[in-house]
């Protein structure tokens, strides 16, 4: 992708109302010469969560084009229950943190963390994942809660295989 092509893509995205913070993703994929790629973005709107995916493809003309995008709006209420010592509201907050940290990791923000900070996030992420997996191994309310949390935060993962 040429610099002009990247600049043109950014202008198109801005005209469509996508935030300028996505420019860094275009620059990244341009720098590693990816031909086809997707960019994901999440936005919080009050209690709702907007997720969108922009898909880019390089045509026969060697020019990268924004081919299409999808947007998903969801507001998922997590019940205030405790199952086998796991409080759903606390787990919801931890999953929100892990989700944000994952976004920071892919955007390069993790580089600003100290080694200890990175290790702490790894431990919290593993513990959070273990709790969700434990809930998913239960029948009834535990499994339903795990599905709800996975759908809320990790829609892109193939969580049906986990549960």
Short descriptors:
163 residues; alpha+beta; 2 domains; three-stranded antiparallel beta sheet; two-stranded antiparallel ribbon; 50% helix; disordered C terminus
Please tally the helical runs, counting DSSP H or I stretches of 4 or more residues: 6
As for the number of domains, it is 2
Number of strands: 5
Pick out the low-confidence regions.
158-163
Strand content: 15-25%
Terminal residue distance: 40 Å
Question: What structural category do the secondary elements indicate?
Answer: alpha+beta
Series of secondary-structure elements, N-terminal to C-terminal: HHEEEEEHHHH
Radius of gyration: 19 Å
Q: What is the arithmetic mean of pLDDT?
A: 85
